[in-house]
Amino acid sequence: MSKPLDLLQQHQNGLWQHVGSGRIYQVLLVANRNTTQPDTFPETVIYQDIITQQIWSRPVEVFVHRCLPYHTRISDLPFKSPTEADDELYT
After folding, report:
1. Is residue 52 assigned to a domain?
2. For the chain, what is the domain count?
3. What pLDDT does residue 33 have?
4. Is there a domain that residue 86 lies in?
5. Structural domain of residue 42, as residue ranges?
6. Rounded to whole angstroms, how far apart are CA atoms 6 and 8?
7. What is the rounded CA–CA span in Å between residue 17 and residue 13?
8. What is the DSSP string of 44-58?
9. Distance CA 10, CA 22 (A)
């Protein structure tokens, strides 16, 4: 299991904050957890904006590198922070 997935599981029902926009999200569930074809069907976070109530989805790796558990410092992460990670993840 990856460190981003570990972090997501530790804070799955908590609030997350987008690094760039500052928006706050509630994770609703993680889809495709038992996938046998991760390249085709990656583990995906389903989450909701707490203000607009819009529902979004992103692969776990992308979500965890764009959002932090609410009130978490980037320096506390057990993997590359969004500012250290490749720019490809943010486009």
Report:
1. yes
2. 1
3. 83
4. no
5. 3-78
6. 5
7. 13
8. EEEEEETTT--EEEE
9. 21
Q: Which two tokens stand for residue 30?
A: 């993680």
**Residue % of the chain over a pLDDT of 70:** 67
Nearest to 29 by CA among 13, 49, 15: 13
Q: Which of 35, 59, 37, 32 is nearest to 47 (CA)?
A: 59
Amino acid at 50: I
Q: Decide if 87 is inside a domain.
A: no
Place of tokens 């609030």: 15
Per-residue pLDDT tens digits for 23-63? 999 999 888 888 899 899 998 999 999 889 999 999 998 99
- Domain assignment of residue 29, yes or no: yes
Q: What is the pLDDT of residues 53-68, one digit of tens each?
A: 999 999 998 998 888 8
